[in-house]
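User: structure tokens for ABC transporter ATP-binding protein YtlC, please.
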Amino acid sequence: MGFLKIDEIHHTYFSKSSATTALSNISLEVEEGEFISFLGPSGCGKTTLLSIIAGLLKPTEGKVTLENQTLEKAHHQIGYMLQQDYLFPWKTIEENILLGLRLNNLLTREKKQATIALLKQIGLEGVEKQYPSQLSGGMRQRAALVRTLATEPKLLLLDEPFSALDYQTKLRLEDLVSNTLKSFGKTAILVTHDIGEAIAMSDRIYLFSPRPGQIYQTFTIPEQLRALTPFHARNHEKYPEIFQKIWKELEQIEPEQ
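Assistant: Done. Predicted tokens:
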């Protein structure tokens, strides 16, 4: 039985004059500790599916379970990291990263110490009393990662968390997030438009076809790449071969402009 089970998800958006089907017959399972990616053209329903997994959107049909629990019971075990860091500008970094613990009545002296220690571990030592405006974009995303991990979620959902960053910062954050999640044994799902990012970070990639979104093809990343950091995976001899294969499949399903 999969750690996360997505069973025959179908979702349609209704308006007064139309009905638009975003997802059709999506079924997949994710094992604990896996890192998977959803890849596909704009409008293929990747973020809609992520919102359903997060429990933010109820699907028209189908169900999602986490460790055999419904999302209503398991929602507190899911962390969400977005493209924007959404740190509160009027709160210090320390106040921001402890916010989830405070809102869930989980803030103890031990958890506070562990969260501050994680902040230092990912290279943000000494910024606790600073405000978000005093940090770079990459530093704010690191702080957002700490805030997400502070509540010890079992599943992390990453919705294009590096897309607003410059390329060098993006590569550094890929390594940092990958290493951090592996060290904590976390399960993660990444939504991305970046083929290279999906290859470098994932154990498995689901390629979605557009309108309505369906799983068009699944790619399992070779163990040789999965054992490497994302930066070094990009330099492996198998990387360009996998990239070209996914690129060709993506070209087949990309809607004409």
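User: Anything notable?

Assistant: The chain has a mean pLDDT of 90.
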